[in-house]
Q: What sequence folds into this?
């Protein structure tokens, strides 16, 4: 009876322990599921906010900063489509401000009143038309040569700086700005400095009529009233969150990967998700190009000119997105290599065997790192973590991101990884080579 009672008590105790363990497992499983769900939410938010952060950073860097704005649009001075369009606008502005036909007609009328012979008066009258045509021809050819010359780049840069200052004043609603928002809400680029340079060239070529060209305030429409609200909103967004939003995205990425039960799988998903979001943003820019062309041409400029302008304005954005896509894909590849798939384990095994052979070869050449290599081996996870964090911060802090910067930072990381693998001496290897433990190269 006593044994039976003890067995019953033991069974009851075992049952209670099993129920307690089951409860603990359920709690742990529920906590793990909650962590996994939170990690997924954070990574999804990271992927959704990443394109917004890129746009905000680009607007802040390219549109708010005058130097970046000028450097981004300065290459337009070398584009044939822009040169032809600017030349046409300058010629049109000069002809609108100076009635060439009336000036020539007044000159011919004045000569006819000088009591000249009838044949001379008739000749002057017959020369009026060719004279007008000749002046138009000289004006067009002079302006075309000017916009195709190297000095046009300097003039164009001056026009860009003037336009940027006026545009920011308009967007900010500065009441003391030289340029106020027109009734139709159109924002334009100023070409007054280009017209002034054309006037100086015409006078230098002996076209005295050009001295009568007044100071012309001519502009080329870039943004219509329908777009100005978006521009103002983008400017306010860029100045408010264009700097810190990328940090929020980075924090979401780190937190999401850190909370995940399988961090390598989370990093793989995050890399692919971010790459997909940047690809979608790239496609959105392509769609925006179609809307821009429809809004600007042919009402304001030819289609080829509008397309060249849009491509140049978004050139840096394209470069940033391509660099980020490459970076995210490389992160996904790295996460896959450190994952638990059979192919990844095989690749890691082959790499480890290769490094073991190289380390053994160095030891045979009396190039062992000895105790220092053992110390490096113990700190290898920490060294890798610091190296990865440093690489990410290097890319992140040097904005805007470029493809060359990404490859340069990753090349530095790979060089450090290679150095660590060659320097470290695993404990097993040190035990196989006890004499090498005292050698430090």
A:
């Amino acid at each position: 009876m006593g044994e039976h009672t003890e067995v019953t008590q033991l069974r009851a105790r075992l049952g209670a322990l099993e129920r307690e363990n089951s409860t603990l497992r359920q709690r742990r499983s529920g906590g793990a599921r909650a962590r996994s769900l939170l990690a997924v939410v954070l990574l999804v938010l990271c992927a959704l906010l990443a394109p917004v952060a890129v746009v905000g950073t680009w607007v802040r860097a390219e549109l708010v900063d005058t130097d970046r704005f000028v450097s981004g649009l300065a290459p337009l001075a070398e584009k044939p489509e822009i040169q032809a369009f600017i030349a046409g606008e300058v010629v049109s502005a000069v002809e609108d401000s100076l009635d060439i036909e009336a000036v020539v007609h007044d000159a011919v009328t004045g000569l006819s009143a000088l009591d000249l012979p009838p044949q001379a008066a008739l000749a002057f009258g017959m020369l009026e038309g060719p004279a007008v045509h000749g002046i138009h021809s000289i004006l067009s050819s002079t302006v075309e040569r000017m916009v195709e010359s190297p000095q046009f780049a300097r003039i164009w840069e001056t026009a860009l700086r003037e336009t940027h200052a006026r545009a920011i004043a308009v967007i900010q609603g500065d009441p003391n700005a030289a340029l106020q928002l027109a009734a139709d809400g159109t924002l334009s680029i100023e070409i007054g400095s280009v017209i002034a340079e054309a006037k100086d060239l015409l006078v230098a070529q002996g076209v005295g009529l050009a001295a009568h060209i007044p100071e012309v305030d001519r502009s080329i429409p870039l943004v219509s009233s329908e777009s100005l609200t978006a521009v103002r909103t983008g400017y306010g967004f860029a100045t408010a969150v264009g700097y810190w939003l990328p940090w929020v995205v980075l924090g979401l990425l780190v937190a999401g990967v850190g909370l995940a039960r399988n961090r390598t799988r989370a990093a793989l998903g995050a890399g692919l998700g971010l790459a997909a979001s940047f690809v979608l943003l790239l496609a959105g820019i392509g769609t925006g190009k179609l809307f821009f062309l429809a809004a600007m041409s042919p009402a304001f400029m030819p289609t080829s000119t509008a397309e060249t302008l849009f491509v140049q304005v978004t050139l840096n954005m394209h470069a940033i997105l391509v660099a980020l896509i490459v970076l995210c894909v490389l992160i996904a590849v790295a996460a896959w290599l450190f994952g638990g798939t059979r192919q990844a384990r095989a690749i890691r095994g082959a790499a480890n065997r290769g490094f073991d052979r190289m380390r053994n070869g160095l030891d045979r050449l009396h190039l062992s790192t000895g105790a220092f290599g053992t110390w490096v081996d113990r700190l290898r996870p920490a060294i890798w973590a610091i190296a990865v964090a440093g690489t990410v911060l290097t890319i992140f802090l040097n904005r805007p991101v470029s493809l060359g910067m990404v490859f340069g930072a990753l090349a530095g990381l790979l060089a450090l990884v290679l150095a660590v693998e060659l320097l470290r001496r695993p404990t097993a290897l040190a035990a196989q080579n006890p004499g090498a433990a005292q050698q430090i190269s």
Summary: Confidence is low (pLDDT under 50) at residues 177-183, 429-441. The longest helix spans residues 2-64. The two ends are 75 Å apart (CA to CA).
